[in-house]
Amino acid sequence: MAGFRMPAEWEPHRATWISWPHHEPDWPGKLAPIPWVYAEIARVLADHEPVEILCQSDDVRESARASLEAHAVQCLPERLNGVPSAGRVRLHIVPTDRVWLRDSAPTGVLDDTGRVVLVNWAFNGWAKYDNWQRDLEVGAAVAQITGLPRAEPRRRDTGERIVLEGGGIETNGDGLLLVTEEWLLSHVQVRNPGLTRADYEAIFEEWLGVRRTIWLGEGCVGDDTHGHVDDIARFVSRDTIVLAVEDDPRDENHERSMDNLRRLEAIPPAPGVGPLRIVTLPFPRPVVMNGERLPASYANFYIANGAVLVPTFNDSSDRVALDTIAGLMPSHRVVGIHAVDLVWGLGTLHCLTQQEPAPR
After folding, report:
1. What is the pLDDT of residue 1?
2. Residue 188 class from Cβ within 10 Å (0-12 exposed, 13-18 middle, 19+ buried)?
3. Residue 211: inside a domain
4. Which of 104, 106, 220, 284 is found 20 to 30 A from 165 (Cα to Cα)?
């Protein structure tokens, strides 16, 4: 598999993929407002790139169409004269268990000719939930819709498919990757029993073109995935990382975020990249629902073609986060998306999106 490279998120996209919300237990008692949040996300994205939306059923597709049209988003047919349409928004009937395509949809990489290949990791409900069998088939559905080649990474020792989720990997597109030990090396929610740090680094090198894996410690409090990096640390350029840091020593996120800051500050310059610049983002005030601390984080933003969608939480730190990201990505339009309801599903903007890279 030599020659594969996972592009950085700010590199050109062909489209963004999302899945229309339908699973009420993901937002207990609060599903009703969630489609309207999705409609707003699709409206913003459609100004910048095509949006491909998976729908659980015909009824869900018609509900999605109504919500989108209410937001002045026009949906085009899945296919025009047998050829996939180039329209901004398309709705596809693809059954799913949940809507978090960052984790169930394939990772788009480029081969050494610049062709897009879908790296289709296995998915097992974050090694936590029982209903994941339909999500396991999302990669095949995306490949069928797009006509792109699909590869299934397998373990060299057992031949089993490798279980990974897109929310756990963050790249600068130039050989560096961020992951956490909590996600892959702890004894909780184990994805691939028996795999070691060295095994994972070899997998990232083979399938994502990674030369250096940067291991952070823990993710944020309330993270249902047990340590996804996209809630705490993100690349915004090949040499700049934004890190969510909690300054209040009384908060549970304080010590874990300070440990991650110390790890990043100790990293030597990367070959071809140089020293890394670390910029901190605040956390919002704790967001709690029914006594449960939710994984509210500004780091869960999504970078589209020419735009950055940032979750906001009706907090005074919203403006700090928006201004920080805008200053780091001045060529992008920065848009805040209200996520207080959305995060009740234990994820926000990056968790629900998955980019399809444009071919080189």
Report:
1. 46
2. exposed
3. yes
4. 284
